[in-house]
Structures are given as structure tokens and as C-alpha cells.
Amino acid sequence: MAASLLRLHFHDCFVNVCMPLHCCDGSVLLDGGEKNALPNLNSARGFEVIDSIKSNLEKACPGVVSCTDVLTLAAREAVYLTGGPYWSLAFGRRDGLTTSETAANEQLPGPFEPLENITQKFAAKGLDTKDVVVLSGGHTLGFAQCGVFAGSGRPDPSLDASFLQTLQSTCPNRNESNSNLAPLDASSSKFDNVYYKLLVNSSGLLRSDQALMSDNVTGSMVVGYSKFPFLFYKDFGASMVKMAGIGVITGSNGEVRKNCRVVN
């Protein structure tokens, strides 16, 4: 579940459901709303893991630890337990009271979007170009459905020919193959820098990932991380700390949910 938990945290922190800025607020965990958005529907997973952790916490110390903090910490542990870096986190986030399908559809970066659009969406959350390259490295874990990267039926012309042939066997251009899974990198259950090595070799699974090589600035970062895994680990931890601090709710605002799926 490592990739799923990391993705849930990312999708939570990238969606601002009200003003002022409320992003990392556990809104993705609420039933309805963001769960029904296209980037999450039939693909977001790990909710039952968060439910289990929260249930045990409520027995030990009721009303203390928010669902948002649970998800933030679970994402960190998921990365660490699959061989990735460990980073320090501050706690005390509160849970939001609303969730929005529309906001998720509009604000989450998509796999077919050009790099310029994705960079703008990151910038709207206070994240820079380096964060785009670093956090995209989270795709070292997990799988993607064929419909996410082959749905148009038109292959990415920048892909390596042999890699493209492998993808076409996994994802024939038929509706029934849209839910087939392909690994995001060659070691999809281990957190490492293979993702960047694949991009250098024109073998990125998602069009939005391979697009990082189309720009001189992001491309040079990709090459650097492909050569120096510990630099990637250090920078990934720093970017995750930045992301986990986007629009957090503290003090007496929001609440500490008893059940992560519904407001109190």
C-alpha cells in the first residue's frame, strides 16, 4: 500500500476546498467529494489503512491525533519502509470540514497535462520547479492503469521504441484493457532512483513524467537524481515537508475527527 498512501497524502495536500487556503486537511478522506473526482475515482486506495490506524488511536488517546496527521505520518512511513528517506515532521494539524469533487478535478495535476500546466499548479501551492521534479519521483512506487497513460490510443512519440512495444502488449488499445496495470518503474515496490534512470532512457510511463526531460532545467535535475540517489532522498524529504505544510489548519479551527470518513 506504500504508493497508495503516498498518493493519498499528495492528493490531500493539493486540493484547496475553501478559503483561506486549506489543503493538507484530510478532506480526501471524507466520503463523497474528492473521492468521486476523476483523479481519485476507482484508483485512490488506502482508506481502510488510515481507518485502522485512527481506530486504534481513538482507543488509546481519543480526540487527540487528527486524520490529517495520521495520513501525513503514514505517507512518511510508507516511503521509509520501502527503502526511502526518513524526514522529521511537525504535528498538530486539524481536520477540515468540507470536501470538493470540483476542486479536486481542477487542481490535481493530470498525467496528460503539459509540464507548464503542472508547474503552474505546483506554484499555486507554493511549490517550485525543483519540487515538481522531486515529488514526481514518488512515482518510483506503484502502478498506473492503462487508461491513465494509454487512454488516447496515441503513444507518446518521445518513448523508447522497445519500451513502447512492451506497453502496447500490456495495454492493447481496447476498453477492457483500461484497468490493466503497468509498473511506474522497474522496481515498483522499492523506493529508489530508478524512476529517473528510466526518464533518461526515454522510458517514463506517464506522459507528464517523461515531459520532465523536454525542458533543460527539469531535465538536468532528472539526470542529476539518476546519478545521485542520496541527493534525491535528501531533496525528497525536504519537498515532502514543504508539501505537508500547505494550508494546514491549526489551533481551534477545524476539528479532530473521530471517524476520518465523516465530520464529527
UniProtKB/TrEMBL annotation:
Catalytic activity: 2 a phenolic donor + H2O2 = 2 a phenolic radical donor + 2 H2O
Start and end residues of each Plant heme peroxidase family profile domain: 1-264
Cofactor: Ca(2+); heme b
Disulfide-linked positions: C13-C24, C67-C260, C146-C171
Residues that, per the record, bind substrate: P109
Site (Transition state stabilizer) location in chain: R7
InterPro entries cross-referenced by the UniProt entry: Haem_peroxidase, Haem_peroxidase_sf, Peroxidase_pln, Peroxidases_AS, Peroxidases_heam-ligand_BS, Secretory_peroxidase
Coiled coil: none
Residues given in the record as heme b binding sites: H139
The record's free-text note on cofactor binding: Binds 2 calcium ions per subunit.
EC code(s) of this entry: 1.11.1.7
Binding, Ca(2+) 2: T140, D185, D192
Pfam families reported for this sequence: peroxidase
Molecular function in Gene Ontology: heme binding; lactoperoxidase activity; metal ion binding
The keyword Nucleotide-binding is assigned to this record: no
One GO BP annotation of this record: response to oxidative stress
Gene3D superfamilies, sorted: 1.10.520.10, Peroxidase, domain 2 (1.10.420.10)
Function: Removal of H(2)O(2), oxidation of toxic reductants, biosynthesis and degradation of lignin, suberization, auxin catabolism, response to environmental stresses such as wounding, pathogen attack and oxidative stress. These functions might be dependent on each isozyme/isoform in each plant tissue.
PANTHER family (UniProt xref): PEROXIDASE, PEROXIDASE 72-RELATED
Record family assignment: Belongs to the peroxidase family. Ascorbate peroxidase subfamily.
Protein name, UniProt field: peroxidase
Protein species of origin: Linum tenue
